[in-house]
Protein backbone atom coordinates (compact mmCIF):
# COMPACT_ATOMS: atom_id res chain seq x y z
CA UNK A 1 0.00 0.00 0.00
CA UNK A 2 1.62 3.24 -1.04
CA UNK A 3 0.43 6.30 0.77
CA UNK A 4 1.61 9.74 -0.33
CA UNK A 5 3.47 11.41 2.55
CA UNK A 6 1.85 14.44 4.14
CA UNK A 7 3.69 17.22 5.95
CA UNK A 8 1.64 19.65 8.03
CA UNK A 9 3.02 22.77 9.72
CA UNK A 10 1.04 23.58 12.87
CA UNK A 11 1.86 27.20 13.62
CA UNK A 12 -0.18 27.19 16.84
CA UNK A 13 -0.69 30.73 18.21
CA UNK A 14 2.12 32.25 16.10
CA UNK A 15 2.05 34.48 13.00
CA UNK A 16 -0.36 37.32 12.28
CA UNK A 17 -1.90 37.57 8.83
CA UNK A 18 0.99 39.60 7.35
CA UNK A 19 3.63 37.24 8.71
CA UNK A 20 1.58 34.35 7.39
CA UNK A 21 1.66 35.72 3.84
CA UNK A 22 5.45 36.04 4.04
CA UNK A 23 5.89 32.58 5.51
CA UNK A 24 3.74 30.92 2.84
CA UNK A 25 5.58 32.76 0.07
CA UNK A 26 9.03 31.97 1.48
CA UNK A 27 8.13 28.32 1.87
CA UNK A 28 6.91 28.18 -1.72
CA UNK A 29 10.17 29.73 -3.01
CA UNK A 30 12.12 26.88 -1.44
CA UNK A 31 10.08 24.13 -3.08
CA UNK A 32 9.31 23.26 -6.65
CA UNK A 33 7.08 21.08 -8.82
CA UNK A 34 8.72 17.68 -8.24
CA UNK A 35 8.65 18.23 -4.45
CA UNK A 36 4.87 18.51 -4.51
CA UNK A 37 4.70 15.33 -6.59
CA UNK A 38 6.42 13.49 -3.75
CA UNK A 39 4.64 14.99 -0.73
CA UNK A 40 1.41 16.72 0.13
CA UNK A 41 2.05 19.87 2.11
CA UNK A 42 -0.25 21.90 4.35
CA UNK A 43 0.14 24.79 6.78
CA UNK A 44 -2.13 25.59 9.71
CA UNK A 45 -1.92 29.28 10.59
CA UNK A 46 -4.23 30.81 13.22
CA UNK A 47 -7.86 31.46 12.19
CA UNK A 48 -7.20 35.18 11.69
CA UNK A 49 -4.63 34.45 8.98
CA UNK A 50 -6.54 31.85 6.96
CA UNK A 51 -8.14 34.35 4.60
CA UNK A 52 -4.80 36.01 3.81
CA UNK A 53 -3.14 32.63 3.31
CA UNK A 54 -5.97 31.58 0.97
CA UNK A 55 -5.56 34.78 -1.06
CA UNK A 56 -1.80 34.41 -1.57
CA UNK A 57 -2.06 30.67 -2.31
CA UNK A 58 -4.70 31.31 -4.98
CA UNK A 59 -3.04 34.41 -6.46
CA UNK A 60 0.39 32.78 -6.75
CA UNK A 61 -1.02 29.31 -7.51
CA UNK A 62 0.98 27.73 -4.68
CA UNK A 63 0.28 23.99 -4.22
CA UNK A 64 0.22 24.24 -0.42
CA UNK A 65 -3.03 23.18 1.26
CA UNK A 66 -4.60 25.12 4.09
CA UNK A 67 -5.28 23.57 7.46
CA UNK A 68 -7.13 24.96 10.48
CA UNK A 69 -6.08 24.23 14.06
CA UNK A 70 -9.52 23.66 15.55
CA UNK A 71 -13.25 23.80 14.78
CA UNK A 72 -16.55 23.87 16.64
CA UNK A 73 -18.68 20.74 16.47
CA UNK A 74 -21.97 22.50 15.64
CA UNK A 75 -22.76 23.90 12.17
CA UNK A 76 -23.86 27.31 13.53
CA UNK A 77 -25.51 28.93 16.51
CA UNK A 78 -25.00 30.93 19.69
CA UNK A 79 -21.41 29.86 20.40
CA UNK A 80 -19.57 33.12 21.00
CA UNK A 81 -15.98 33.00 19.83
CA UNK A 82 -16.26 29.76 17.89
CA UNK A 83 -15.74 28.91 14.21
CA UNK A 84 -17.76 26.35 12.22
CA UNK A 85 -16.58 23.79 9.70
CA UNK A 86 -18.55 25.40 6.87
CA UNK A 87 -16.83 28.74 7.55
CA UNK A 88 -13.46 27.00 7.19
CA UNK A 89 -14.51 25.14 4.04
CA UNK A 90 -15.53 28.46 2.51
CA UNK A 91 -11.91 29.62 2.95
CA UNK A 92 -10.66 26.61 0.94
CA UNK A 93 -9.39 24.91 4.08
CA UNK A 94 -8.62 21.24 3.30
CA UNK A 95 -7.52 19.83 6.67
CA UNK A 96 -8.62 20.54 10.23
CA UNK A 97 -6.53 19.49 13.22
CA UNK A 98 -8.81 17.89 15.79
CA UNK A 99 -8.00 16.84 19.33
CA UNK A 100 -4.50 18.26 19.59
CA UNK A 101 -3.05 17.45 23.01
CA UNK A 102 -2.95 21.17 23.84
CA UNK A 103 -6.71 21.26 23.33
CA UNK A 104 -7.24 18.05 25.24
CA UNK A 105 -5.27 19.30 28.24
CA UNK A 106 -5.94 23.06 28.26
CA UNK A 107 -9.46 23.13 26.83
CA UNK A 108 -10.65 19.83 28.28
CA UNK A 109 -11.59 18.21 24.99
CA UNK A 110 -12.56 14.57 25.45
CA UNK A 111 -13.07 11.66 23.04
CA UNK A 112 -16.78 12.32 22.55
CA UNK A 113 -16.19 15.96 21.62
CA UNK A 114 -13.28 15.09 19.33
CA UNK A 115 -15.51 12.53 17.60
CA UNK A 116 -18.20 15.19 17.03
CA UNK A 117 -15.61 17.61 15.68
CA UNK A 118 -14.24 14.98 13.28
CA UNK A 119 -17.79 14.37 12.02
CA UNK A 120 -18.39 18.11 11.56
CA UNK A 121 -15.18 18.38 9.50
CA UNK A 122 -16.17 15.43 7.31
CA UNK A 123 -19.68 16.81 6.84
CA UNK A 124 -18.11 19.98 5.42
CA UNK A 125 -16.00 17.84 3.04
CA UNK A 126 -12.65 18.54 4.69
CA UNK A 127 -10.16 16.09 6.16
CA UNK A 128 -9.75 15.78 9.94
CA UNK A 129 -6.21 15.38 11.25
CA UNK A 130 -6.96 13.55 14.49
CA UNK A 131 -4.24 13.83 17.11
CA UNK A 132 -3.59 11.08 19.62
CA UNK A 133 -0.77 10.50 22.08
CA UNK A 134 0.12 9.51 25.62
CA UNK A 135 1.45 11.70 28.41
CA UNK A 136 4.76 10.91 30.09
CA UNK A 137 2.88 9.67 33.14
CA UNK A 138 0.82 7.27 31.02
CA UNK A 139 3.92 6.08 29.20
CA UNK A 140 5.79 5.41 32.42
CA UNK A 141 2.81 3.50 33.73
CA UNK A 142 2.94 1.24 30.65
CA UNK A 143 -0.40 2.52 29.37
CA UNK A 144 0.68 3.88 25.97
CA UNK A 145 -1.06 1.30 23.76
CA UNK A 146 -4.19 1.37 25.87
CA UNK A 147 -4.38 5.18 25.61
CA UNK A 148 -3.81 5.14 21.85
CA UNK A 149 -6.43 2.47 21.26
CA UNK A 150 -8.97 4.38 23.33
CA UNK A 151 -8.22 7.69 21.59
CA UNK A 152 -8.26 6.25 18.06
CA UNK A 153 -11.42 4.19 18.60
CA UNK A 154 -13.16 7.11 20.30
CA UNK A 155 -12.32 9.61 17.56
CA UNK A 156 -13.47 7.29 14.75
CA UNK A 157 -16.61 5.98 16.40
CA UNK A 158 -19.59 5.92 14.02
CA UNK A 159 -17.62 6.77 10.87
CA UNK A 160 -17.91 4.73 7.67
CA UNK A 161 -14.92 2.83 6.21
CA UNK A 162 -14.90 5.31 3.29
CA UNK A 163 -14.73 8.29 5.63
CA UNK A 164 -11.96 6.64 7.63
CA UNK A 165 -9.89 5.82 4.54
CA UNK A 166 -9.61 9.51 3.69
CA UNK A 167 -8.65 10.88 7.06
CA UNK A 168 -5.37 11.51 8.82
CA UNK A 169 -4.21 10.53 12.29
CA UNK A 170 -1.21 12.19 13.96
CA UNK A 171 0.57 10.29 16.70
CA UNK A 172 2.01 12.97 18.96
CA UNK A 173 3.37 11.69 22.27
CA UNK A 174 2.69 14.60 24.63
CA UNK A 175 6.15 14.37 26.22
CA UNK A 176 7.79 14.87 22.80
CA UNK A 177 5.91 18.07 21.91
CA UNK A 178 8.04 21.20 22.08
CA UNK A 179 10.64 19.49 24.25
CA UNK A 180 13.45 18.53 21.82
CA UNK A 181 12.95 14.96 23.14
CA UNK A 182 11.71 13.39 19.94
CA UNK A 183 10.49 9.79 20.10
CA UNK A 184 12.63 6.97 18.68
CA UNK A 185 11.61 6.06 15.11
CA UNK A 186 11.38 2.35 16.02
CA UNK A 187 9.05 3.14 18.88
CA UNK A 188 6.93 5.44 16.71
CA UNK A 189 6.70 2.75 14.01
CA UNK A 190 5.48 0.26 16.60
CA UNK A 191 2.87 2.64 18.05
CA UNK A 192 1.61 3.70 14.64
CA UNK A 193 1.40 0.08 13.53
CA UNK A 194 -0.75 -0.53 16.61
CA UNK A 195 -3.02 2.42 15.73
CA UNK A 196 -3.35 1.18 12.16
CA UNK A 197 -4.24 -2.31 13.40
CA UNK A 198 -7.04 -0.81 15.51
CA UNK A 199 -8.39 0.99 12.45
CA UNK A 200 -8.12 -2.13 10.26
CA UNK A 201 -9.99 -4.15 12.90
CA UNK A 202 -12.97 -1.84 12.75
CA UNK A 203 -12.82 -0.44 9.23
CA UNK A 204 -10.98 -3.06 7.16
CA UNK A 205 -9.37 -1.40 4.14
CA UNK A 206 -9.85 2.04 5.61
CA UNK A 207 -6.93 1.25 7.90
CA UNK A 208 -4.55 0.53 5.04
CA UNK A 209 -5.37 3.80 3.30
CA UNK A 210 -5.37 6.10 6.31
CA UNK A 211 -2.29 8.32 6.63
CA UNK A 212 -0.72 8.30 10.08
CA UNK A 213 1.80 11.04 10.86
CA UNK A 214 4.30 11.50 13.66
CA UNK A 215 4.54 14.76 15.60
CA UNK A 216 6.83 15.84 18.42
CA UNK A 217 10.08 17.81 18.05
CA UNK A 218 10.48 16.92 14.37
CA UNK A 219 13.46 18.71 12.77
CA UNK A 220 15.53 18.43 9.57
CA UNK A 221 17.97 16.10 11.35
CA UNK A 222 15.46 13.50 12.52
CA UNK A 223 12.76 13.52 9.81
CA UNK A 224 14.64 11.01 7.61
CA UNK A 225 14.60 8.42 10.40
CA UNK A 226 10.83 8.61 10.69
CA UNK A 227 10.13 8.63 6.96
CA UNK A 228 12.20 5.46 6.51
CA UNK A 229 9.63 3.56 8.57
CA UNK A 230 6.91 1.63 6.79
CA UNK A 231 3.92 2.97 8.69
CA UNK A 232 4.96 6.60 9.22
CA UNK A 233 3.30 8.62 6.48
CA UNK A 234 4.54 12.11 7.26
CA UNK A 235 4.86 14.62 10.07
CA UNK A 236 2.88 17.20 12.02
CA UNK A 237 5.50 19.84 12.76
CA UNK A 238 5.21 22.59 15.35
CA UNK A 239 8.17 24.82 16.22
CA UNK A 240 10.35 23.85 13.25
CA UNK A 241 7.58 24.79 10.80
CA UNK A 242 7.73 28.47 11.82
CA UNK A 243 10.95 28.99 9.89
CA UNK A 244 10.32 28.44 6.15
CA UNK A 245 13.94 27.38 5.51
CA UNK A 246 13.83 24.77 8.23
CA UNK A 247 10.36 23.57 7.31
CA UNK A 248 11.35 23.24 3.64
CA UNK A 249 14.24 21.00 4.69
CA UNK A 250 11.80 18.79 6.58
CA UNK A 251 9.39 18.68 3.64
CA UNK A 252 12.28 17.65 1.35
CA UNK A 253 13.29 14.90 3.76
CA UNK A 254 14.92 12.78 1.06
CA UNK A 255 17.60 15.38 0.17
P1 LIG B 1 6.78 20.57 18.03
O1 LIG B 1 7.17 20.16 16.64
O2 LIG B 1 7.09 22.01 18.35
O3 LIG B 1 7.28 19.59 19.05
O4 LIG B 1 5.17 20.50 18.10
C1 LIG B 1 4.53 19.34 17.67
C2 LIG B 1 3.09 19.62 17.61
O5 LIG B 1 2.42 19.79 18.61
C3 LIG B 1 2.48 19.73 16.27
O6 LIG B 1 1.09 19.72 16.35
Globally, the shape reads globular
Bound molecules: 1,3-dihydroxyacetonephosphate
CATH architecture: Alpha-Beta Barrel
- Proportion of residues in β-strands: 15-25%
Number of domains: 1
CATH classification, class level: Alpha Beta
Helix content: 40-55%
The string of secondary-structure elements, in order, is: EHHEHEHEHHEHHHEHHEHEH
Radius of gyration: 17 Å
Mean pLDDT across residues? 96
CATH topology: TIM Barrel
Which class do the helix and strand fractions yield? alpha/beta
Features:
46% helix, alpha/beta, eight-stranded parallel beta barrel, binds 1,3-dihydroxyacetonephosphate, single chain, 13 helices, TIM Barrel, 255 residues
Give a quick rundown of the structure.
The chain has 255 residues and is of the alpha/beta class. Helices cover 46% and strands 15% of the residues. The structure holds 1,3-dihydroxyacetonephosphate (13P).
Characterise the protein shown here.
- This protein has helices spanning 17-29, 33-38, 47-59, 85-90, 101-106, 111-123, 136-140, 144-156, 161-166, 185-203, 206-209, 223-227, 244-251, and strands at residues 6-10, 40-44, 65-68, 93-98, 127-132, 168-171, 211-215, 234-237.
- By secondary structure, it is α/β, with parallel strands linked by helices.
- It has an eight-stranded parallel barrel with strand order 1-2-3-4-5-6-7-8, surrounded by five helices.
- The chain starts with 5 loop residues before the first strand and ends with a helix.
- The mean pLDDT is 96.
Layout of helices and strands:
Blueprint: E1 6-10, H1 17-29, H2 33-38, E2 40-44, H3 47-59, E3 65-68, H4 85-90, E4 93-98, H5 101-106, H6 111-123, E5 127-132, H7 136-140, H8 144-156, H9 161-166, E6 168-171, H10 185-203, H11 206-209, E7 211-215, H12 223-227, E8 234-237, H13 244-251
This protein binds 1,3-dihydroxyacetonephosphate.
1,3-dihydroxyacetonephosphate binds next to strand 8.
Amino acid sequence: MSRKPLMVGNWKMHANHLETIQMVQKLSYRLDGPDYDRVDLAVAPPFTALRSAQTVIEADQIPIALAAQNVHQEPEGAFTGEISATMLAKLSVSYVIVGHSERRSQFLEDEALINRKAKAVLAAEMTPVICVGETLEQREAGQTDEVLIRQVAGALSGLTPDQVAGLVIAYEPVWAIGTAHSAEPDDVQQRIERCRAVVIDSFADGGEHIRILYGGSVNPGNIGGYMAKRDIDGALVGGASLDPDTFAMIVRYWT
